[in-house]
Amino acid sequence: MSQSRLTELTWREVRRAGERGIALLPVGSQEQHAGHLPMGTDTLLVEEVVDRALALLDREPAPPEVVRLPALPFGHSPHHLFAAAVSLSAATLGAVLDDVLDSLVTSGYRRVMVVNGHGGNDEIMRLAVKRFALRARVTVAACSYWTLTADEDGDEAGRPDVTPGHAGWFETSLMLAAHPELVHTPVPARAPVQPPPLFDHPPHPGLTVERHGEWERVDGATDDASGADADRGGRLLDGRARGLARAIRAFDAASR
């Protein structure tokens, strides 16, 4: 196999893999996902997409060599503490990512890819990657899994109005496909919240707007999840996995 798990390798195997391979770090969170999804939804979904992508690559004639790290299960989730979350501050998450990247470089890796599963991590992850590449001889890539789709996905790219959302149609569909036993069903219908939260519906394109108490006001979910569908969720997962597999191949080709 060209893909392996860091946890299962000896230190000599880790060193050898670092000479030519890509270290891949999934990053998730532990936070409220309304009343029907588990706290670890973001971590479970990013792991699912990563593992599906690596399985696709492993079926190719000459796949890139990838070492998959254990997922970082905690992220930046202070906006979910009104209900329940295990949150790292932005500074702490940035420092953790910096330490992990530094450890990988010290262990011999010169190529690292970070795949994120939680919206609150995105800006912190990208800044950490940019800052680290300024001081270390390394090529680092970063992405959030929901942004990646294969060109042929068409309608299965998702509903842009609720993708990724939070504890809504998109995430619930994916969880019904990946971990149906963890979804509390039936998922209750949710009446539209008026006015819609500004963080999800800014009053002007290009604005980022946050207002105190918005997440609690919308009961911890961005949209109605009652129409979530496991079959559609499976296709959405496969589309993101194909997109991630293509991204890994492209990164491999560009960073050798």
Automatic annotation (TrEMBL):
Its cofactor is Zn(2+). The keyword Thylakoid does not apply. Signal peptide: none annotated. InterPro entries: Creatininase-like_sf, Creatininase/forma_Hydrolase. Keywords: Hydrolase, Metal-binding, Zinc. Pfam families: Creatininase. Belongs to the creatininase superfamily. PANTHER family: 2-AMINO-5-FORMYLAMINO-6-RIBOSYLAMINOPYRIMIDIN-4(3H)-ONE 5'-MONOPHOSPHATE DEFORMYLASE, 3-DEHYDRO-SCYLLO-INOSOSE HYDROLASE. This is Creatininase family protein.
